[in-house]
Amino acid sequence: MINDFDAASGLSFFLYRSAARPDIGNGDLTRILSVARSRNKAAGLTGCLHHEDGLFFQWLEGPHAGLRPVIESILRDDRHHDVTVLNEGPLDVRRFEDWQMRFSDRDRKSLMDWFAAQSMSTVDRNEYAGGVVAFLQSIV
Ligand SMILES: Cc1cc2nc3c(=O)[nH]c(=O)nc-3n(C[C@H](O)[C@H](O)[C@H](O)COP(=O)(O)O)c2cc1C
């Protein structure tokens, strides 16, 4: 879907995994999502965040100019650490166009169980990143 944001500049995406601060609770998650959704809306960003076994997996997409400052904020946020960029680059079509930031956790669907069932490699970097995206897109 082409909207004003997308027409103004090309789309990019950013996919990472990070370790949540050990004492992160539901209150922290609620606050993270509340700020994320309003800021993403203003910047024309969409995506999803998955929390499982102390790890965050996040896919963010939108116009490059809007995406960059949000990524910088996320990278310096002390509510998580060890941010590993799994993939990033240009994007043709939004994958989560209906979501300012969808949230899921293992009660909804488990990434670890999903990987085990797919017999996909979690060692090969490209296959792992592709698996994470496929998993995130499989959550309905
Ligand atoms: C796991 C995680 C995911 C986040 N996702 C987003 C997001 O999608 N969009 C966003 O604006 N902020 C997100 N944040 C919050 C930012 O890190 C930051 O606190 C917020 O954007 C405010 O920016 P500032 O700290 O530079 O003022 C996230 C934080 C964490 C820990």
Automatic annotation (TrEMBL):
GO MF annotation list: blue light photoreceptor activity; FAD binding
Tree of life domain: Bacteria
Entry-linked SMART domains: BLUF
Protein name: Sensors of blue-light using FAD
Domain (BLUF) ranges: 11-102
